[in-house]
Amino acid sequence: MVWTRGAVNRAVLGVLGVGLLGAGLWLVGGDLGVAARLPSWWPADGTGSVLMDRAGLARLRGTGWWTPVVMTTASLLTVLFVYWALAQIHSGRTRPLALPSPGATVHPHTLAGALSARVAQLPGVARCRARVLPRGGTRLDVGLRVWLEPGTPPDAVLPGLTALAAEAEAAAAPCITRTRIRLSSTSHRTPHVR
């Protein structure tokens, strides 16, 4: 859902950008100072010309399809943009996750805090930041950012991290859990003498 929303946003912004670029080029091309420097294939307008004159607009309005098409298109575009704008609003609260026990729930923020505390207790781990994101009602994305103490190889910490990730997946049993672990090392802080 997030990837689809991002792709739609980029596509709409790209189409709007190309449309605005074309409109800007068309308007710039209408200036007489710029019109003299345009390529020969560029359509040139005469002095005082308009995009659609009164006779052409009256002819379009006289046809039976013009008014319903314009009104329907404008209404659909308005509804589409309002829906798109409302879809961008994110509520700050996430719903609690259902646990296997009847009536038991846990908030994703609480689960992330507990997971961070458990990972930080592993030997060789300096600190940890966990993030739990519910995706729909059946998926759960868990992200662990783990900073290792100086001199600790990742191989020494991975078995404990894997065991805690499996424990977290079992705790959120109805949900399908995907865990990502990112390892970083803390810098060797050497004292500087002046």
TrEMBL record:
<keyword id="KW-1133">Transmembrane helix</keyword>
<feature type="transmembrane region" description="Helical">
    <location>
        <begin position="65"/>
        <end position="86"/>
    </location>
</feature>
<protein>
    <recommendedName>
        <fullName>Alkaline shock response membrane anchor protein AmaP</fullName>
    </recommendedName>
</protein>
<keyword id="KW-0472">Membrane</keyword>
<keyword id="KW-0812">Transmembrane</keyword>
<feature type="transmembrane region" description="Helical">
    <location>
        <begin position="12"/>
        <end position="29"/>
    </location>
</feature>
